[in-house]
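::Amino acid chain::
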Amino acid sequence: MTNLKVTLSLSKYDFNITSMQIHFILVEPAVPENVGAAARAIKTMGFSSLRLVNTKVHLDEKASWLAHASNDILENAQEFKDLKEATQDIDWVIGTSAKKRRVNEDHYPSNKIIELIRAKAGSVKNLAVVFGREESGLTNDELKLCDIVTSVPMKTTYPSLNLGQSVMIYAYTLSMLEMDNEKPDQKIDQAELNILKTKTENILSDIGFKKDSAIYNRIMERLMILGETDIHLLLSIEHKINEILKKD
């Protein structure tokens, strides 16, 4: 797995952003050559973690042909039965989709995800980018497991990008993670993000929002793109809300 260590040097200040593990997840790819091309893209851009959901095509000889000196990515690929299992240890999941789905209100262009990642700074230790099937992409249920959904801006809808090309675009984009130009407001760790998620879920449940409701999913979706300062602000607000709910 690749470690991205970013050090900020600002006059007399030095800040170390926590190492972030970047994972690329392919859900049920059917074409061995596409997986081989994806492995090549991942290694070329300096990454090493490939996760595969419900497939064995990476073991096909055709995959190794396209991997071209990236066979170690295929050999070390982790296999999972479904996307939920593949993302169990992931703090922030970026889904990819060729077209906008109703399940996610916001749709971010791939070239904007770096800004969103930088805003989260030390709160994300494990990040994953998820790619769907060649023919049908990710299902709505799979997209619900993603914290945000992105797509590659294109001038034409056809011909579309193949899986290998899409992985290369995101791998290249993520390789651009480098020095920020501003001092972080506050540093938080993954524990604080988990606390915020848990408190929000509990409050929504207490005031009558069910997990399968549109508003619930919308709130949780927006929660995952907040920066550090906003997370701390919400934690303070939720603390007060919990005090009021306990009094009632």
Summary: The longest strand covers residues 13-27. Residues 1-18, 179-186 have pLDDT under 50 and may be disordered.
